[in-house]
From TrEMBL:
It comes from Hoeflea poritis. The chain crosses the membrane at residues 12-32, 38-61, 68-86, 92-113, 120-137, 178-197, 228-247, 259-276, 282-299, 311-328. PANTHER family: ABC TRANSPORTER PERMEASE PROTEIN YPHD-RELATED, ABC TRANSPORTER PERMEASE PROTEIN YPHD-RELATED-RELATED. Pfam families: BPD_transp_2. It is found in: Cell membrane. This is ABC transporter permease. InterPro entries: ABC_transp_permease.
Amino acid sequence: MNDRILDFAIKYGFLILLVGLVIYFSLSAPGFSSPRSAVFVLQSVAITGILALGVTCTLVVDGFDLSIGAVATSALMLSAYSMVILEQPAFVAVLLCLLIGAFVGLINGLLIVKFRVPDLLATLGMMFLLIGLQRIPTQGNSIATGMSLGNGVVAEGTFSQAFLWIGRHRFDFFVERLVPMPVVIFLVIAVLIWLFLGFTRHGRLMYAIGSNERAAGLVGAPVNTYKVVAYMISGVTASIGGILLAARLGRGDIASGNNLLLDSVAAALIGFAVLGAARPNAFGTAIGALFVGILLQGMTMMNAPYYTQDFVKGAVLVAALVFTFYLSSRRTGAGH
């Protein structure tokens, strides 16, 4: 009986906690259960969820990408710079951002597999490099139409309507226009990565590499290639997040991506606790992002001080990981 209760707690405990959180906020915060509130939650989790899915791919191969927040902010600034200062069309700005994301992922991967730099150090170094690099062209200023470029020159370019549509368009849902475009993109990416990791040979090989890299190499798996690809996926998803953030804001805000790294990593790691997976997985990451969004929206509507939000997120993350790995180890011990 105890084993059955333990198995149930490991598999469904986090989902029960999520439902309990929704019920608590619905009763304690007026308006939390309204459709508008749900839209705010979904819109807030879309970008961090996309970044978290990229981190999940690196976690699968036993890596970790700390540069995602910097990549997203670099994509945000690059898209703004392309359209406002260089006056390029939207598709050029989007293409440049995707290429930069893939290139940064490639460099991260090569640093790790070719130069044997530990993943945390390689991606941390890339994070600092990008944070500095994105500030140089504008001398640390945000980018907006009409900004001064010096010597009496003013930036005359604008964000195209096609680009803004990516971040601001809403689809009809039960008459009201409630489903934002970033949410649709997040769901599409989540499904694609879920299918890729869970139902393709490539995904199974990536899990095998993460579980035992040496054994995977001995059976002929191209370990280095898959690791580089994982970091390239992370870079591209981070750049997509930056594009969506720029399209939503309509300006290149240098400080808008400050919390992206922490929220995305929290979502990816909380995903370990979903359905007792105890490993990185796309479904768990999506639920983890939703959990973080619900938590922050509920605390905001209850007028909780902003400085308590990081503490609560950290506490939930630690509790979820302890819950997952401690109970899983007890179940394994009981099995023996």
